[in-house]
Amino acid sequence: MALGFFSRLKAGLTRSTTKLTTGITDTFTKRKLDDFALEELEELLIAADLGPTVAAKVIRAFRRARFGQDVSPPEIRAALADEIAKILAPVAQPLTIDETKQPFVILMVGVNGTGKTTTIGKLAQIYADAGQKPMLVAGDTFRAAAVEQLQIWGNRAHAPVVIGAQDADPAGLAFDAMTRAEREGAKILLIDTAGRLHNKAALMEELRKIIRVIKKRDPTAPHAILLTLDATTGQNALTQVKTFKDMVDLTGLIVTKLDGSARAGVVVALAESTGLPIHAVGVGEQAADLRPFDATEFARALTGADPV
């Protein structure tokens, strides 16, 4: 990623970074890394939403490598960034579009309010700019605002948006969209879906029906099922992953709203606990603010360490 995006990422993570680095500065000014210091660091990591499992792993690494040494806050931040990057590296995977699949079908799922529809719009803009001819499907047919929002993004990206009647069957709409995408030569089909978790059984059946119907057009589709998560929800994001994994076979995650969150540490907890690829993160409202996830740059932005 360009330094410009690292700067935006670091600025976006300011609230999360301040929460963590203030505690590090208070704890490690002219101090040995002893049992008491490690205990305080562990509490800081848990409070920063990295979760107890990640915190314990980091503390074990620090105990092996640095126990008893005099450490300064910058040294702790840099070492912490290195340990976090090791946890994040296996899941920092870009979303690869298989060009032999036309259209390449991406089913987007997530709770209402997580930025799912906006993320679809941003992806459409990114793919359109790359000449990959996206088509959008307004599959949340019960929410007029979501349909209108998708139309706005479609217009920006000069991408067609497949729209059904209010309260139309989302599965039928997805089938029609597959047919149209094949006819018009769309390379990528981005399907929005409902996110009404207050009725999980109905949502589960709706998502599974969409997948069954899509497979009638292409047995290999959908080629990606991405869950959008709002970083401001903190540890609740872990619960959302479990809920949607029970419904569909998730293939990856996109984490949004990092610029408004003091809980960005949950990204590390997601990496550790789910093992699902984190394809991209969002730090603003523009399409350019949704970027491929980079483990090292995220870890250094989160901890306040200098870029490599």
Automatic annotation (TrEMBL):
InterPro entries in alphabetical order? AAA+_ATPase, P-loop_NTPase, Signal_recog_particl_SRP54_hlx, SR_rcpt_FtsY, SRP/SRP_N, SRP54_GTPase_dom, SRP54_N_sf
User: What is the protein name given in its UniProt record?
Assistant: Signal recognition particle receptor FtsY
The protein's organism comes out as: Acidiphilium rubrum
Q: Which reaction does it catalyse?
A: GTP + H2O = GDP + phosphate + H(+)
State where the protein is found: Cell inner membrane; Cell membrane; Cytoplasm
Q: Where does GTP bind?
A: 110-117, 192-196, 256-259
Record domain AAA+ ATPase: where: 102-260
The EC number(s) this enzyme carries: 3.6.5.4
| This protein's record includes keyword Translocase | no
The record, for Pfam families, names:
SRP54, SRP54_N
Q: What is its main location?
A: membrane
- Which parts of the sequence belong to the Signal recognition particle SRP54 helical bundle domain? 9-88
* Cellular component, GO, one term: plasma membrane
Its domain of life reads Bacteria
Topology with respect to the bilayer? Peripheral membrane protein
- List GO BP terms, alphabetically: SRP-dependent cotranslational protein targeting to membrane
Cite the GO molecular-function annotations of the record: GTP binding; GTPase activity; signal recognition particle binding
Query: Its biological function?
Result: Involved in targeting and insertion of nascent membrane proteins into the cytoplasmic membrane. Acts as a receptor for the complex formed by the signal recognition particle (SRP) and the ribosome-nascent chain (RNC). Interaction with SRP-RNC leads to the transfer of the RNC complex to the Sec translocase for insertion into the membrane, the hydrolysis of GTP by both Ffh and FtsY, and the dissociation of the SRP-FtsY complex into the individual components.
Tell me its family.
Belongs to the GTP-binding SRP family. FtsY subfamily.
Q: Which UniProt keywords apply?
A: Cell membrane, Cytoplasm, GTP-binding, Hydrolase, Membrane, Nucleotide-binding, Receptor
List the taxonomic lineage: Bacteria, Pseudomonadati, Pseudomonadota, Alphaproteobacteria, Acetobacterales
Subunit-structure text: Part of the signal recognition particle protein translocation system, which is composed of SRP and FtsY. SRP is a ribonucleoprotein composed of Ffh and a 4.5S RNA molecule.
**Residue ranges occupied by any SRP54-type proteins GTP-binding domain in the UniProt entry:** 103-304
